Structure formats: C-alpha cells, structure tokens
Amino acid sequence: MGAYILRRLLLIVPTLLGIMIINFVLVQFVPGGPVEQMIAQMQGKGDVFEGFSGSGADAGAGMGEQGGGEKYVGARGLPPELIAELEAQFGLDKPPLERFLGMMWDYMRFDFGESYFRKIDVLDLVLEKMPVSISLGLWSTLIAYLVSIPLGIRKAVKDGSPFDTWTSGAIIVAYAIPAFLFAIMLLVLFAGGSYWKIFPLRGLTSDNWQQLSAMGKVLDYFWHITLPVAASTISAFATLTLLTKNSFLDEIKKHYVMTARAKGLGERGVLYGHVFRNAMLIVIAGFPAVFIGVFFGGSVLIETIFSLDGLGRLGFEAAVGRDYPVMFGTLFLFGLIGLVVGIISDLMYVLVDPRIDFEKREG
C-alpha cells in the first residue's frame, strides 16, 4: 500500500501542473484583464463590482486589442507611461512563459501573492472565507448521509413496496429542483418573502452575535445556517439514497446471504451482521469526495442568494474582476486538495474493507 500511495502522490505534480497550464493558456485569450479593469475605474466606466474596493466588474467590452495598433481602447487619452506602469504593477510586462514559471515557483513554496484589488494576501483571503464554505459543506454532507443511508437501507428492504415507490418519486422530484430555485423558494416562504418570517434573510450570524451568551451564539448560528444548508442538501439526497439502496440490493442477492439465512440467522442479523459492511463500502469510502464536492461545487449561487461571503463567491468575484492571483491561487489550492482527497478516498476503501489491495489490482 505504501508504494501505491507514493505513486499517487508523485502523480499529483504532473496532474496539477497540467491543470494550471490549461487554465493559464485559456486566460491569455480571454478579453479584458486587470489593466482594463484599472483603466475603466480611472475613466469611470463599467460597474464597480461589490467587494473589490472599486475595481470595475468587467471592462472587457471595448477594451481589447484593436487592429489600429492601440492595445487598450479604454486607454485613449491616458499617457503611455501610465499604461506601462499599470502593466508593471500587475506583472503583465513580462512574457507569458516567464510569468507562468514564476507563478508556479511561488506556488510550490505556497506563496500565492496578493490580491490585485483587495491588497490582501491570497492565502489569508481564502482562510477568511473558508468558515462559511466549511459550514455549508460539512452540515450538508452530514445531513445527507444521516438521512439517505437509513432511507436507502429501508428502501432496499422494502423494495417494490408502496413505501419504496413514493419515496423514490419524492427524492427524484427533489433532485430535479435546481438548488438555486429551491433556495429562492425557501426565502419566499420562510425568510420574510410573501409568507412567514421565521429565518433570517442573510449572513451566518446576527449583528449582536458578540453580545450573546455561548448557547445564544450556537442557536443564532444554527438559525442562520438552516435555509442555506437545506438548499445545498436537497439535491444530494437522491444520489446517495439510490446508491445505498442499490448497493444493499446487490449484496442481498449474493450467495453468502442465502447461506447465512439457511443457517437460521434472522433478517436483522443478516442485514447488519453480513450485508451492511459490504454494502456500505462504496458509500462510506465516498464521503471525502462528497464533502469536497459540496464544499467547492454548487455553492456560488447559494452563497450569493443568502449573502454568504464564502469561497464560491470569492472565486466568482475573482473571475469577473480578473483578479488573477486569487483566481490561480484558489485554483492551485483546490486542485491540490481535490487530488489529495482522491487518495484519502482510496485509503477509506482499505479502512472499510482490508481485503482491498490497490497494489495487486494495479499489477
């Protein structure tokens, strides 16, 4: 197992390098950039994107290169010295290859630089936004597992019954509802839209959170997180429930289960003494990947709708505002985390079932 883990760790380097190269090359062809953002700000053009200390949201329109030899259309009337100074400030006066190699050298030392427009270290910025995304990802994943696993087991035991039929219909309907649409519906129904004002509209804590008691802070936190977590979790139920059900059905039909029954073992003993461990292998081992999926994916709209300042919103704002250090720094970090989680998932398989040997399978 040690040799397998070592090979997987060594593969992280070329994989991560490939991810960074592809994205860096694509960005070179995207119109607009930090210089255009600054020019738009100087000339009062474009909307100011919230959270970027006055940077323009997207000055790409009308700011690209022109055939007349003028690099930035928005730079008309600005002295060339100022444009050169802006390019030097953002490091765009160097060739792309030199910029990429310098960026990767810094990233290998976990030096992600400073945000162009926020003037904050990228790593500090990520750490500042991470608690919000951890809250959404952790609670959504835990609730999905706590509900889906018992439900999936029950559906497998009652396969073909009315209970199995109507629960399948309910979770498929829930899966078909987009998370952002469900989030809006929750706001309308329970956050003072057109019906009841039971939950707060935005944020993770109240304005007077610091003055609350310890128990008051806990209750206030859960009061604020209820609707965002519900919106994030709704689509996760279907996949996990059906995965659990099908996994149990596959195991129930195997010969060792029939042998256990023939020896007089009760259904509960067969289910939890023999079937459970094998059937739960794929479900439990997939926990890290599911958590990372909820943690990094699908949170942009939820965070925007509920005014939560997390990693999803940070990445979206960085892309719109062409804040390259934040864009590439978060891409590197999230890519690295995703690759490491893949290794952790394999280790979870071995932990749940020691009979699995990835080295022999590769051989």
What is the domain total for the residues?
A: 2
The number of helical elements comes to 17
CATH superfamily of the largest domain: MetI-like
Radius of gyration: 26 Å
Main sheet record: none
Strand content: under 5%
Q: How widely separated are the two ends?
A: 12 Å
Count of individual beta strands: 0
- The level 1 CATH classification of the largest domain is Mainly Alpha
- What is the CATH topology of the largest domain? MetI-like fold
Shape: globular
Write the layout of secondary structure elements.
Elements: H1 2-28, H2 34-43, H3 80-89, H4 96-108, H5 122-157, H6 162-176, H7 179-190, H8 214-233, H9 236-252, H10 255-262, H11 267-279, H12 281-285, H13 287-296, H14 299-305, H15 311-320, H16 324-352, H17 358-362
Helix pairs in contact: 1-16, 5-8, 5-9, 5-13, 5-16, 6-9, 7-8, 9-11, 10-11, 13-16, 14-15, 15-16
Give a structural overview.
It is found in: Cell inner membrane; Cell membrane. Belongs to the binding-protein-dependent transport system permease family. It holds the Pfam family BPD_transp_1. The protein has 363 residues and is mostly helical. The chain folds into two domains: 2-116, no CATH class; 123-362, Orthogonal Bundle (MetI-like fold), CATH 1.10.3720. The protein has 17 helices and no strands. The protein has helices at 2-28, 34-43, 80-89, 96-108, 122-157, 162-176, 179-190, 214-233, 236-252, 255-262, 267-279, 281-285, 287-296, 299-305, 311-320, 324-352, 358-362. Helix 10 (255-262) packs antiparallel against helix 11 (267-279). The longest helix has 36 residues, at 122-157. The two termini are 12 Å apart.
